[in-house]
Amino acid sequence: MINNQFAIVPTDSEAAIAELKTIHFITDEVSKLTTVPAVYRALLAKSFPEVNTAAGLTHKFKNLMATSQHDLAAWLENATVVNNQVFYNVGLQLLGFLPGEDFDLADPLLAMRDIHLPMVADSAFDREALYYAWYLLLNTRGKKGQTLIEILTTRGYFAPFYDLPNAQKPLFFNGKSQAVFNTNHLIRDVVYVEAPLDTDHDGQRDLLKVEILRPEETASGLKVPVLYTASPYNQGINGHAGDAQMHNVDVPLTAKEPDNNTYDDVAYQPTAQALPAKRPVEHETKDAEETFSREQSYTLNDYFLARGFAVVYAAGIGSVDSDGLATTGDVAETTSTVAIIEWLTGKRTAFTNRDGNVAIKAWWTNGSVAMTGRSYLGTLATAAATTGVDGLKTIISEAAISSWYDYYRDNGLVVAPDTFQGEDTDVLAAEVFSRSLKAGDAHRIQPVFDQKLAELTRDQDRTTGNYNRFWDERNYLKNVDKIKADIVMVHGLNDWNVKPRNVANLWDKLQNVPVTKKLILHQGQHIYINNLQSLDFTDMMNLWLSHKLYDVDNHAESLLPNVLVQDNTAAQTWHGYDNWWQDTDQALDFKVQYKELVPADHDVDQRAAHFSDHLPDKLFDHYRHHLDAWQADLFSEHKSDPMYDHRLLFKSWQAPHDQLLVGRPHIKGSVAVNQNHGMLSFMLVDFGMAKRLTVSPQMIASKALDLGYHWREDDLKDFKLAPATPFKMITKGHLNLQNRHHPWHAEAVQPNEFYDFELDLQPIFHHLLAGHQIGLVIYATDMKMTVRGNQNLQYSLNLNDIRLHVPVKPVDQN
Amino acid sequence: MINNQFAIVPTDSEAAIAELKTIHFITDEVSKLTTVPAVYRALLAKSFPEVNTAAGLTHKFKNLMATSQHDLAAWLENATVVNNQVFYNVGLQLLGFLPGEDFDLADPLLAMRDIHLPMVADSAFDREALYYAWYLLLNTRGKKGQTLIEILTTRGYFAPFYDLPNAQKPLFFNGKSQAVFNTNHLIRDVVYVEAPLDTDHDGQRDLLKVEILRPEETASGLKVPVLYTASPYNQGINGHAGDAQMHNVDVPLTAKEPDNNTYDDVAYQPTAQALPAKRPVEHETKDAEETFSREQSYTLNDYFLARGFAVVYAAGIGSVDSDGLATTGDVAETTSTVAIIEWLTGKRTAFTNRDGNVAIKAWWTNGSVAMTGRSYLGTLATAAATTGVDGLKTIISEAAISSWYDYYRDNGLVVAPDTFQGEDTDVLAAEVFSRSLKAGDAHRIQPVFDQKLAELTRDQDRTTGNYNRFWDERNYLKNVDKIKADIVMVHGLNDWNVKPRNVANLWDKLQNVPVTKKLILHQGQHIYINNLQSLDFTDMMNLWLSHKLYDVDNHAESLLPNVLVQDNTAAQTWHGYDNWWQDTDQALDFKVQYKELVPADHDVDQRAAHFSDHLPDKLFDHYRHHLDAWQADLFSEHKSDPMYDHRLLFKSWQAPHDQLLVGRPHIKGSVAVNQNHGMLSFMLVDFGMAKRLTVSPQMIASKALDLGYHWREDDLKDFKLAPATPFKMITKGHLNLQNRHHPWHAEAVQPNEFYDFELDLQPIFHHLLAGHQIGLVIYATDMKMTVRGNQNLQYSLNLNDIRLHVPVKPVDQN
C-alpha cells in the first residue's frame, strides 16, 4: 500500500504538545513521569480504551512486538530509552500493519518510507521528540485508511469527551474537528421553508421540506455550521414514471432546417413573474413539530455529524411533502435550492408545518454554510454558488454538471450520459417528482405536473439537439463570475455519465474569479471517493471545512494542492499540480495518413478515406445489447473485424518517453457525407499492453470505516491494477455536421460536399507511458450515447486536412 | 410481489384487543371515542410518530388516498362507517404499496389477495372488527419486507417504550418479542472462559475470549436469554497464511494401496488426556474489566439485540486473545465451543482478564441459550448440539457442515467446496488461527501451531482421500442421537460450498431423535436469508426464539412448516411440506441407451460407451481459468463441442407433467478404466428453456431493513427470474473407483476390467416442469472440485448396467 496524505498540518513541537494536552494524551500524571519509557508506556496505555486494568493492558502489550525478539510488555519492563525502531515497530502495529506481511520488525523505517508514512528521524527520543513522534503518529493513516486518532475514535477514545462543556467544543486536533459529539443523541427536525416561487401555480408560495440533523449541544447554546445537501432524490424517486418517460434512441438522425441563429437569439432572459404574497407569521417558536427517523444519508455528511457540524437535506420543488414541480436545472430549481441557505442565514421564513403560520428560525447555526454532494446534488451546489448567495462559504461539488447541455447534448447532437441512453431532462424530472409517490398529493398535482413535463419534452428539443433558450437557462457557466464561495471540485476522469467537460469548463472559467478553488481528478467513473484506502480525502475535507466554516487557521488553502490527480498508470498514486492545462503551452500536433498519426511537421500521403455508418442488421442488434463489445470492436485492427469498415483508426508512433496529455484535445478536418445530414464521433485511445486500474474501486474491507463511534459505517475500497489490456479509451467527442460552427446554429449540409469542422474533445489528464501509442478513432454513431438509426450514411474525410492537437505538460513536474 | 408469511399467530379478537392495549394502540382515550371512524382516525394518528400536531398529521393524511377520489383527510371529515375498501386502500399505502403501480384504489382487495396478504372479510367494520383488522394489518408484511409494526418500529414507535419498567419487558406482540430495548445503550463486556482443554500444551487450561452484548436492563435485574454465535472468523482471519497453505489441485490422481479396512478400523476413539488444574479463583466480581467497540456482527443477532436477547460471540481456540490452536472440526474445537455455554449456564468459570484470578459469572442471563450462524458458525452450533449440553435450547444452523468429510472429500476423492479448489482442513486452520495476527502472541505460539498444522496436513491425507480416523473424529453425524436441542436448519439447494448432503444427512438422522426439527431449503448458494422480500424468515425466528428461550406459548412448533422449500420455477414462492423424501416411496427409475434415459421397464440396446478424460492442453488450461465455461460445455450436445467426447450424456423423454424430484438420486452401473485407478463424476441436469431464478438474491433496496430503531441496517433482496436458459445442473456426485464400496476401504482396480459401482448423488428438492428433460452426465475430472491431472484415462461403461433412481413426491401435496 502507498499512503497519500495531504491534510497533515505542519505543527511545531510546542503546539503539538499543547494539542496532546487538549485531547488528554498529556495529562498531569503523564507530565510527572520521570523517564521517557514511562511516558511512552502511558501514551500507549491510553491507546487501549477497551481495558481499564493493568492486567488487561499487559495482555494488549503482549500482543505487540517491540523488537524482533521482544514483545512490548517484556520490552517495557527493561526499557531505558525509546528509539525509533521500537516506536515505529509498535506504531505500525497500532496502525494495523502486520509484521512479516506488511513490514519487517528488523527494519520498520523501511516500511514507513515505502508506505509513505511521515516519521521523526531521531533515532533515540527525548521526551519532547517522543511527544512529537506520538503526535505525528496519531495523524498518520493506517492500513485501513484511518489515522490513528480516527482508529482510536472508532474504539471509543473520544466517548468521555461527549460530556465536555460547550465552551470546549468543537475540539480541533491538527487543524481538524474531532468526533466529540454523540451521534446517538442527534436532534432531528423537519421544517418547511417558504421559497420565493410558485412553480405549481396554486397561488401560494412553494413550501420546501427541510430535514435537519444537529448535535444536541445546539440545544444548550452551541452554534454550529451547516453542511447542506440539496438532493432531489432524497425523498424517494419514481422509477416507473421515469421509465415511462424514457426516449427511444433507435431513431434516425434527421436534417434540420438551417437557421441564422447567433448566441443572442438563444440567450435566456429572465422574465419577472408575479409572486403570491408571503404567508403571514402568527407565532414564532424554537421547537419543531415534526421529526424523521432516517434521512437518505451521505457518508461525508455523516462523518461531520460526529464532529460538530449540522447537516441539512432538502429535496426541493416537486418532492414529497414539498410544493412545486420538478423542472431539471432551471432557474426556479436554483431559487428553490438557495431558499434553504437564505433561511439558514436568517433571510427567509420557515414554518413548523404546512399550514404555515408558526415560524421557526435556524437559531442553532452560526450561519456558515457549505454545500456537499455528488452528481445532481453537486450540480445544485454549483447552481447555488453561481448566485453568489450570502452565507454559502464553500461548496464541495463532486461529479457535478456545470451546464445541462453538456450533460444531455453535444455540439448539436443528443448525447446521453453513459448507461442512460434515452434519458433527458423530462425523464429526470418525472423520476425526481416524488410528490407522485404520495397518492393523496399526486391526486391533486399530477395533471399540473404532466403539463410541465410536456413543456420540458417540447423545449429540450430532441429533434434538433440544438442549444436553445431552454438549455441556456440551464447553463450555470454563464454566472461563474458571480461565485463568492470557495470551491472544491471532485471529478472522475473516466466519468462518462457527467462528462469531464462539466468540471473542466467550470475550472477554466474560475481562473479569473477571486475565490479559492481546488480540483481533484480521480480515475473513477461517477463515484464518491470518501472511502479510498490511499487518499485522505475525508481528512482534507475536514481541514477545508474546519477552516471555511469554523475559521480555524490551519493553512487548508496552501496545504491542499490546487489540482490533485490520480495517476492512471499505477495504483495508489496521486500527484499535486499547480493547474490543469492552463499553465502549459506545449502540445503534440499530429497529421494523419493511412492508419497513422504522424507529427504535424511531416509530409504525408494525400488521399481521402471513407467509412460507412451502416451495420448489418444482426450486428447492429448485437451491439445494441453489448455496448462494450461494440467499443472493443471499434479499436480492433484486423480487416476481418466487424467494425473495421465502419470507422477510421490512426495510430501514432510509440511514445519515446512518458507524456502527460492534458486539457482539451482539438480536432479539425474536412468531411463529406452522402446525405443532407450527418454526425462524426471521435475517440482518443491509449494503445499498449499494460496493467490498468480497475474501472471501479475494489472492496478491501466491508464496513471498515466507522464515521464516528458506534455510528454509520462505510466500506474501505481502492482502485487496483487489473490484468493487462491492449488499449483504453482516453476521451471522446461528438459533432452534428450541421452544427460545425456553433451548437445553437444549424447550417445546411449538401450531400457529398466537403465541409470544414473543428471541435474539442472531452478534456483529459492522461499519463501515456513510453512505448504506448495514441490512437484516433473517427466514426459516426456512438452506440452508447447518440441516436442509433443505423442509416445508410457514408462519410469521406480528407486525410490531408485532419489535425489533432493535444496539450501536454512535463511528466516530471512533480 | 408475493408475500409468504408463516409467523402470524392466529389470535382471537379478545386477545388481539388486549395486545393492542399492551402496545398502546388502544388507550383509554381511544376506548372513549364513540364512532368507528373516530377510532380509526386515532389508530392512524398513532402511525405517524414523526408528527406531534394536528396540522402535521392532517398533512400526512392528505398524502394518502382513501378512495379513488378522496384523500384520507377529506374522507375522515365525512366518514360515518369504515369499510374494508378504505381500510385496505390506506393499509396498502401504509405498507408501502403504491396506488396505480402496485394496486388499484378501486379494488384494493384484489391486490391483498394477489400479494397474499391476510385480511378481514367484513365489508363494514364495527369497533371490534376494526381492532381486529388493525391488529392483523400491524402483523402484515409490506412492500419492503417488514410488517407494519416493524415499519413503525424503525420510525420510532417503540422509542417511548424504552423507559418501561423491567417488569413489562420483554414485550411480546403476536407471539414475537418487540424492539423495546435501546440498542444505543447496550452493555459490551469481554470475559475469558476457562475451557477444559490445553490444546497449546502450555500447562494452563485454554482461556477463551468472549464478547457479550446485553441490554442495559440487565444491569437493573432483567434476566435475558442468549444468542451465542461461535465464529472462528470473528477476531479476524489470516488470509496470507491460508493462501500459503493452499494445495495445488493440478496433480494426478494416483492408485492407492488396497487395504482391508472396515469402519471399525477407522472409528475415532476418544483418548483420555491429562488436563492442567483449574485456575484458582481469588475474587469474584459482577463487573467486567474489558469492553469492545465493534464486534463482527450478524444481522439476525442484531435484530434480537433490540428485542431483549443478549448476544455472545466467541471465536474459540486459536483466535486473537484466546489460547489454544485452531484444529478444524475436531473434538477439542467442540469442547471449546461448548465451554461458553457451560459458563452461561453456571457450570464453568470465566475470568475478567487473562491473569485469571478474578472470576465473573453470567449473572445477567436466564440460562436459556440458542446458537446461531452460517457455514463454519452453523457447523459449530451443530457440533455443540451433538454433545447434548444442558441449557442449549435450540440452534438455528444455516448452511452448516455435519461431517467434515462431506465438506472436503467424497467417496474416496478429494472434493473441494465450490470456488475453493485446493482448500482443506489445514488451510482453514491457518486462516482462522488469528493469534497469528497479533505479532507478540504469534512470536510465542507460532512454532507450536506450525507443528499442529503439519499434523493436520498429514492426517487429512490428500494422497488417498480415504475416510480415516481423522475424519471420523470430525463427523458430527455419529452423535446425532445425543441431541437435546430443538433445531432449525437452513440450507441452499444450490450450495456447492457446504453441499446439501450435509443438511440432508443430519435431517435424516434426526428423524428418530425426540426433538423438534424444522428445515428451510432455499434456492440460493451459500447465503443468509434474513433479508428476503418474500419470506418472513426473521419473524419466524422471532416466533421460534420467543418460544424456545422466553417460553412464550405462541404455537411456534405447529405454525412453522416442518420442511419449507423455495420453488425453483417461480419467484417468491415457498411451500410447506411434512417431510423431505422420508415420507415418499415413489420414484423415477431409468435405464440408459445411446444418449437416452429410458424408463427402467423398457428394453434397451446392449452396448458399451467410452470417453476419454484427457483434454488438449490448451483447452484444459482454458477451463482451469473458466470453470463455468467448462460446465456449460459439459452439457453441450453437438459433436463439435469440445467436451463432447469427454463425457457421456443421457437425456430422458420430456416430462409429461410437473414432478418433484426429492432426496438422494442413486446411480449404479459398471465401469472399466485403462489404468489401475480412476474416478467417476455424475451430474443430474434439468434440460428445458425456462426462466430460472437468479443465482443470488438481487438488491431491491439498499439499507431498507433497520433492525431496530436507529440501529444497524441490512439490504432488502430477493431472487428474481432471469432470462431463459436451456439447462440447469440439479445435483452432482463423485466416486473414486477404488472406494466403490466404502470411503474408508480402498480396493484394487485392474486396468480394463469392469467393476460394479453405486452411489448416492447430493440430495435434491427439484421441481421439474412438464416438458423438461432430466439429463444424466457421466464424466471424470470435475474441474471445480476434484484434482485435475489431465491424465490419459479412458473410461468404458456398460450401458446395460446403468440404473438411475430418483425419488419423487406428488407436486400437488401443497
UniProtKB/TrEMBL annotation, chains A, B:
Residues 542-805 form the Xaa-Pro dipeptidyl-peptidase C-terminal domain. Its EC number is 3.4.14.11. The active site is at S375, D495, H526. GO terms for molecular function: dipeptidyl-peptidase activity. It is an enzyme of class 3 (hydrolase). Signal peptide: none annotated. The keyword S-adenosyl-L-methionine does not apply. It holds the Pfam family PepX_N. It is found in: Cytoplasm. It catalyses: Hydrolyzes Xaa-Pro-|- bonds to release unblocked, N-terminal dipeptides from substrates including Ala-Pro-|-p-nitroanilide and (sequentially) Tyr-Pro-|-Phe-Pro-|-Gly-Pro-|-Ile. InterPro entries: AB_hydrolase_fold (IPR029058), Galactose-bd-like_sf (IPR008979), Pept_S15_Xpro (IPR008252), PepX_N_dom (IPR015251), PepX_N_dom_sf (IPR036313), Xaa-Pro-like_dom (IPR000383), Xaa-Pro_dipept_C (IPR013736). The keyword tRNA processing does not apply. Homodimer. Removes N-terminal dipeptides sequentially from polypeptides having unsubstituted N-termini provided that the penultimate residue is proline. This is Xaa-Pro dipeptidyl-peptidase. It comes from Lactiplantibacillus plajomi. The gene is pepX.
